[in-house]
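Duplicate of #3305? Posting structure anyway:
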C-alpha cells in the first residue's frame, strides 16, 4: 500500500493543512486583544489570518483529492500489470476466481482505497503535527491546561484503538458477507437457465434474499460501531474541554490568571482535539479499504507465492527467453498443462506425482534449437519476468464487450495491428465484426474460430514468450498447417512453448525427446 503513495502530494496536503491551522491559531491570538481594545492593526492581522486559513485549507482539500485520484490510478495500473496483465486470459477451469469476478473485485478495491490515501493518511499526519504545535504553544501559555491536554490527548487515541479493533472485525465480517453475496448472485445469473428449467426460481429468490439480509445486518453492525466511535470521540473531547474550562474559571475567580490568557487558552483547546476526531472519522472511512486490500493481498499471495521445494529432485526443462519453439506432447491427462500451471504459479508443485502410470511426455523442437542435454530434465522453469509471458489456456475467457475489446484486453491496439493479427490466423474477414458484441462464452463463434481468435489475442499482446495450450484443438488440417507455419515464423523472434496431445513431432525437422 505504501508504494502507491504520491509522496509529494501527501507532503503538500499535510503542509497546507498545518499552515491553515497555524493561521487559525494566529487569528485566535488576536481575539483577546480585540476584546480588550479594538485596533485597526489587530483587526487587519485577524482578517489576514482568516484569509490565509481559508486559502491553505482550500488547497489542502484540493491536493488531498488529487492525492486520492493519483493513488487510485496507480493501484489500477498495478492490478492491471501485476495480475490481469500478467495472466490476462485466465482459464475458467484453473484455480482462482473467474476473470470477470476478479476484474470487479479489483475495481471495487481500487475505489475503496481512495479514502485511505485522500483522507486517512493526511489526517494521520495532521493528528500528530497539529496537536504537538498546540501543546508547544500551551506550554508557554498555561502549564495546567498543557497538562490536561497532554494526558487527555493520550487517552483519546487509546479509546479509538479499542473501538477500532471492534470496527476492524466488523468490517472484515461485512466484506466476507459481501463476497458471498456477490458470488451467489453471479452464480445465480450464470445458472439462470438451469434454475428456470427445474423451476427453482422461488427457492433461489429466497436464498438470495437471505444472503442480502445477512449483508444488511453486517453493514448495520459496522455503522453502529462507527456511531459508537463518533460518540466516544465527541464525549471525550467535550469532557476534556469542560475540564479545561472549569480549571480556567476557578483560576479566574481566584485572580491567579488574566482574562486574555484564559480566553485564548479556551479558544485554542477545541483545535487540539479537532484533528484527532477527524482522524477517527477517516479511520472508519478507510477501514473498508484496508479489509479489501487484505483480501487482495491474501489472494495474490496464494497465486504467486513460491511453494516449498519438495525433497524429490526434479529434472528441469528451461524455457529459452527468445528464438525457440518447443512442443510438449502426450496423451490427455498426463500432466502437460499442470507442468505449465506449476511454472506460472497457478498450481502447487507436485513433481511428476500427477502423471498417471504407464504414461509419457514428449518434448519436440527444431533440430537447430536442441542440444544433447537440452531435454534431460522434466520440470518447466522460466527464469525471466513472468509479465513477459502471453498465456493461452485451453478454454480462453471471453468477457462482455466487443470483439475488439476481447482481442485487446490490456492495451487498445490500432486497426492495422488488429487486422494483421487476424490475417495471420486466417480470420481477416473478422475485421468487419470487430464492433460486434461477444456473447457469453463467445457462443456467436465456432470452436475453431474461438481458438484462432485467442491466438490473435496472444499476437496482439506482443510479448516475447508465448505459452499455448492446445492451439490446434478444433482446427481442420489446413488451419493446423497454417498455425504450425505461423509458430515457426514467430519463433524466429520469440520463445514459444506449445502444448498439444496430437502434435506433428513426427516431422523430420523436429527432434523428439521422451520424458518417462
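Output from current build:
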Amino acid at each position: 500500500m505504501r508504494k502507491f503513495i504520491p509522496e509529494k502530494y501527501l507532503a503538500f496536503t499535510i503542509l497546507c493543512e498545518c499552515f491553515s491551522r497555524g493561521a487559525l491559531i494566529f487569528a485566535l491570538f488576536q481575539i483577546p486583544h480585540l476584546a480588550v481594545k479594538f485596533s485597526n492593526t489587530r483587526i487587519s492581522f485577524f482578517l489576514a489570518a482568516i484569509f490565509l486559513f481559508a486559502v491553505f485549507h482550500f488547497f489542502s482539500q484540493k491536493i488531498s483529492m488529487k492525492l486520492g485520484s493519483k493513488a487510485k490510478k496507480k493501484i489500477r495500473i498495478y492490478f492491471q500489470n501485476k495480475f490481469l496483465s500478467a495472466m490476462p486470459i485466465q482459464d475458467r477451469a484453473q484455480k482462482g476466481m473467474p476473470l470477470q469476478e476478479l476484474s470487479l473485485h479489483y475495481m471495487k478495491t481500487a475505489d475503496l482505497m481512495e479514502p485511505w490515501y485522500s483522507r486517512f493518511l493526511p489526517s494521520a499526519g495532521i493528528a500528530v503535527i497539529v496537536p504537538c504545535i498546540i501543546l508547544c504553544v500551551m506550554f508557554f501559555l498555561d502549564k495546567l491546561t498543557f497538562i490536561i491536554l497532554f494526558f487527555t490527548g493520550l487517552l483519546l487515541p487509546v479509546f479509538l484503538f479499542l473501538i477500532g479493533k471492534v470496527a476492524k472485525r466488523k468490517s472484515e465480517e461485512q466484506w466476507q458477507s459481501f463476497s458471498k453475496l456477490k458470488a451467489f448472485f453471479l452464480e445465480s445469473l450464470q445458472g439462470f437457465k438451469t434454475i428456470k428449467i427445474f423451476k427453482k426460481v422461488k427457492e433461489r429468490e429466497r436464498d438470495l434474499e437471505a444472503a442480502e439480509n445477512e449483508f444488511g445486518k453486517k453493514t448495520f453492525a459496522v455503522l453502529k460501531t462507527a456511531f459508537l466511535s463518533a460518540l466516544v470521540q465527541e464525549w471525550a473531547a467535550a469532557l476534556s474541554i469542560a475540564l479545561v474550562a472549569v480549571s480556567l474559571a476557578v483560576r479566574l475567580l481566584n485572580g491567579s490568571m488574566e482574562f486574555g490568557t484564559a480566553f485564548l487558552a479556551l479558544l485554542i483547546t477545541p483545535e487540539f482535539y479537532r484533528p484527532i476526531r477527524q482522524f477517527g472519522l477517516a479511520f472508519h472511512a478507510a477501514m473498508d479499504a484496508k479489509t479489501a486490500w487484505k483480501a487482495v493481498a491474501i489472494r495474490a499471495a496464494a497465486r504467486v507465492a513460491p511453494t516449498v521445494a519438495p525433497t524429490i529432485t526434479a529434472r528441469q526443462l528451461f524455457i529459452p527467453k527468445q528464438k525457440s519453439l518447443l512442443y510438449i506432447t502426450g496423451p490427455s491427462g498426463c500432466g502437460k498443462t499442470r507442468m505449465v500451471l506449476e511454472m506460472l504459479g497457478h498450481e502447487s508443485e507436485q513433481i511428476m506425482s500427477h502423471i498417471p502410470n504407464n504414461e509419457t511426455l514428449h518434448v519436440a523442437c527444431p533440430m537447430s534449437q536442441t542440444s544433447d542435454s537440452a531435454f534431460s530434465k522434466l520440470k518447466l522453469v522460466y527464469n525471466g519476468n513472468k509479465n513477459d509471458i502471453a498465456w493461452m489456456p485451453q478454454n480462453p475467457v471471453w468477457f462482455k464487450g466487443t470483439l475488439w475489446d476481447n482481442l485487446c484486453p490490456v492495451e487498445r491496439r490500432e486497426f492495422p495491428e488488429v487486422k494483421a493479427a487476424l490475417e495471420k490466423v486466417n480470420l481477416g474477414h473478422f475485421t468487419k465484426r470487430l464492433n460486434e458484441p461477444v456473447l457469453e462464452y463467445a457462443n456467436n463463434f465456432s470452436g475453431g474460430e474461438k481458438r484462432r481468435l485467442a491466438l490473435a489475442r496472444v499476437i496482439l499482446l506482443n510479448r516475447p514468450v508465448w505459452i499455448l495450450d492446445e492451439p490446434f484443438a478444433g482446427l481442420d488440417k489446413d488451419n493446423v498447417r497454417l498455425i504450425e507455419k505461423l509458430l515457426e515464423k514467430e519463433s524466429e523472434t520469440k520463445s514459444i512453448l506449445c502444448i498439444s496431445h496430437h502434435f506433428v513431432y513426427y516431422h523430420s525437422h523436429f527432434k523428439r525427446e521422451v520424458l518417462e
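Confirmed duplicate; merging threads. Strands lie at 316-318, 324-329, 361-366, 379-381, 389-392, 465-469, 495-500, 510-515. The two ends are 46 Å apart (CA to CA).
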